[in-house]
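Holo model, magnesium ion. Inputs:
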Amino acid sequence: MGRSSGRGAKCGVPAVFICLAALLCANVLLYIYLETVYQDSAPPSAHTNCHTGYFKVGTMSSCTPWLQCTEIRADVRRLRMIGQGAVKKVYLSEWQGQKVAVSVLSSEHYKDDFLHGVSMLRSMQSVRVVTLVGVCEEDGVFVTEYHPLGSALTLEATLAQDRYLRLNSWQTRLRLALDFVAFLVFLHNSPGGARVMCDSNDLHKTLSQFLLTSDLRLLANDLDALPRVEPGGQGVKCGHNQLTGEFVAPEQLWPYGEDVPFSDDRMPGYDEKSDIWKIPDVTRFLLGHVSGSDVIHFHLFQIHAQCKKQDPRQRPSAHEVMSVYRSVYDRMKESHTEIVRDML
Ligand SMILES: Nc1ncnc2c1ncn2[C@@H]1O[C@H](COP(=O)(O)OP(=O)(O)O)[C@@H](O)[C@H]1O
Ligand SMILES: [Mg+2]
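Output:
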């Protein structure tokens, strides 16, 4: 009896050490996993490895020059219509085994907007903007990378799908809000000067201008209405018609009351701060109602109140908003990791 219990004690000591070591290893691995999962705040992976004038989409392994009229006419096959706005009809199409999106001008009336959009797409190629595949201006056609999830309007339906359910988290949603604000930073500091995102008179319209990538990031897609704010100039106007509603910034509304008929000539211009006004509404949509989104709203309360200042000059820059979003993201990530660690 005594011998057998002594042998048990001898065996027990290394067994305890092995168990402790295994537990320690498991913890280390879990920490490494958590760090990599939550560190992932880099912009979308698409394109950008190609020089200007070249593209790479889908399963392509090397960069190819943007397609021109002859190639677009001969080699791009339209499959079905996937979207339609005021300016373009968009078709899922096929080019050399790759899925692409073909945008076709829907009315000569919008030719100028279309050409403006094409020139913006050409000059703004970056991680924040959809990849351009080719252009044929004389046919009123351009080709871009195809994103199967479509516009940001599909967010709720997408996150409700079984395969995305696990990703319906505050992390995914706050990162989308960060993508939106990061695009505004990019737009307001673009090489040719600040530009205003004009095609954004309501929430639906604004969201329809962005694509949702398969890795749940936002990409700017429709660049048809990005007027430039001339330094020291009169500002810009988003269209020639009267704007109404609470989604647009107060300076975009007719300032002379209902008794004075609207006149485009008398309507004062404004600048990129009209985009800042819209951030809280877009972010509210993107954050939705998941565990953690209330806490994020609370952390963003102050910066959002500043975005809604009546005087555009008192609103923060997109860059300032992004810094706050980033620090909230980091803080949330840290406390979330701590909670998981405490649970171990
Ligand atoms: N590359 C694309 N991949 C997938 N869907 C797209 C793509 N481009 C456009 N779409 C769809 O077509 C819609 C209209 O495109 P958009 O460029 O906004 O046209 P418009 O200038 O007429 O508003 C988008 O909201 C989106 O649903
Ligand atoms: Mg559009």
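The chain has two domains: 54-145, 150-343. Confidence is low (pLDDT under 50) at residues 1-11, 27-46.
Archived with the compound record.
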